[in-house]
Amino acid sequence: MGKYQEVKLTHVAFIMDGNGRWAKRRGLPRHLGHKAGCERIIEIYEECLAQDIKVMSLYAFSTENWNRPKGEINHLFKYLEIFFKKEINRIVRDGAVVRTSGDLSRLPEKTQAIIADAKEKTKNNNKFYFNICLNYGGKAEIVRAAQGIAQDYKEGKFALEDITEDLFENYLYTAGLPPVDLLIRTSGELRTSNYMPWQLAYAEFIFPVTTWPDFTKEEFRKCIDEYYRRNRRFGGINDKES
After folding, report:
1. Which active-site residues does the annotation give?
2. What is the CATH classification number for the domain harbouring 128?
C-alpha cells in the first residue's frame, strides 16, 4: 500500500454510468451495454480487495430507472442474476458479505430469490462488504428512516433527545457501514442523481469521463491516487496547511 497509509480509503461508492452510451458508440443495443457493465463489476471488486478497501457500494438500479423501456429493465435484471450465479462462490471464498440498499419488493421474483440466496450464503462473512443498491433512491431512504424513527418514538423506545445522527444512521439501509469516503461516477456526468445523500456528506467526488464498461482497474487506481492527493478537512483545518 505504501503511500496509501496516510489516509485510509474505507468505503468507495460507484455510479456505474455510461452503459447505454458505450453500446450506442458500438452500434449495439443498449442492453448489451448493461451486460458489459455487469461483467466489469468483478474486476473492480477484486481491485477493492487488493487495495484493502472494506466496502464498495454500487448504484445498480434507481427508483427512477423504472421509467426506462421494459425490455431494457428486464435485460438488466437478467444480467444481475447471471452475475450473482457466476460470482457468488468467489464472493463467499473471499469472506465478503452481500448487502443491499433499496426496496427489493418490486424486483422480479427470480432476481429477489437469487439475491436472497447470495445474502444467506455470505451472512456470516465480514472481511468485505459488497453493497448493491437496487430500486434505491436517497430521498426515499431518508423518508423511510424518518418513518422508522417516528414509529419507534411513538412506541416509547427512546426519548426525543435520544434522536441523534448516530441513531438516525441505524435506520438507513447502510446501518453499520462506514460513511462513503469516495464517490466515483463514470462517463463524465457531474451529479449524484439521488444517490446516498446522507452517506456522501463528506465524500470526495471524482467524475472520470470513461464509461463504466471501459472503467478498468487501472482507471480505478488513478481515482485512488487522486483521492489520496485530496486535502480532507471535515470542516476543520489540516495541520499541513500553511
Report:
1. 17, 65
2. 3.40.1180.10
